[in-house]
Design a protein that fits this description.
It is a single chain. With 238 residues, the protein is an all-alpha fold. The protein has one domain. The protein contains seven helices and no strands. It has helices spanning 13-45, 53-56, 62-108, 123-128, 139-152, 164-189, 193-236. Helix 1 runs antiparallel to helix 7 and helix 6 packs antiparallel against helix 7. The radius of gyration is 22 Å and the shape is elongated.
Length: 238
């Protein structure tokens, strides 16, 4: 029979202080890319829709915007990789802390057996579900939802209401991924000015949603970290 793993808490505050600036950088680079994209879209809109893209490549937005657009794309990618890594690390640590808090409450017998149940998503899977097709649509949200609930009230966490902020962030994150997929497919298939225009518009929409999702995530990181610090400190003095 498998033995349930016992988790210990780790201070989430330092990681949150590193994560939040990285998310701000990602949001800033995405905003710059939106501006560069808008300049490019404006230039493309002035050209005949059916014109081959080879004709437009040397004239779209001029040399300055070509550099700005290229650099901002690279900046978005680099910032996304850094912020993404730190976000997953923070999700794992937050889930681990929530499991440790919930297990400590269970050992003390503080929870009412009539409504007590274990968390359903382990810390490794709180991260792992992001990379599983289909399941990534809801399982990571389930993991973060349980983490929030336990961090808010370790004793009666199943009754804790889910804040709208969490739902908004998840909806925006899903929409960002959908728009990113559309932009990628369009970029791989365009051969005309009209095709490039549609691809750029989809990418601008994706990054606009990404900025909103990132700002929501920053609030979640700050609030959930505060909840966990309070819960961990409360246990130390019980």
């Amino acid at each position: 029979m498998a033995v349930a793993r016992t988790y210990t808490t780790r201070d989430p505050a330092f990681l949150a202080r590193v994560l939040v600036p990285s998310l701000c950088v990602y949001a800033a680079t995405a905003a710059v890319n939106i501006v560069a994209g808008a300049i490019q879209v404006g230039s493309l809109a002035q050209m005949p829709p059916g014109a081959p893209m080879s004709l437009a490549e040397s004239t779209v937005g001029g040399p300055f915007n070509e550099i700005l657009y290229t650099v901002s794309n690279l900046g978005v990618l680099a910032a996304f990789l850094l912020a993404g890594f730190l976000t997953l690390k923070w999700i794992y640590r937050s889930s681990r802390n929530a499991h440790a808090i919930e297990q400590a409450v269970a050992r003390r017998g503080s929870s009412d057996p009539s409504f007590r149940r274990d968390m359903s998503v382990s810390p490794p899977w709180a991260v792992g579900w992001f990379f599983v097709p289909i399941a990534f649509l809801w399982k990571p949200f389930e993991a973060l939802r349980e983490t929030w609930q336990v961090s808010t009230d370790p004793v009666a966490w199943t009754f804790v209401l889910i804040p709208n902020l969490l739902r908004w962030w998840w909806g925006l994150w899903l929409l960002e991924n959908i728009l990113g997929n559309v932009a990628l497919r369009l970029s791989l298939s365009f051969g005309t000015v009209e095709g490039q225009l549609l691809s750029d518009l989809a990418q601008m929409a994706q990054h606009t949603v990404a900025v909103a999702a990132t700002l929501a995530l920053i609030l979640i990181v700050q609030r959930l970290t505060g909840l966990q610090v309070a819960a961990i400190n409360a246990q130390r003095f019980d």
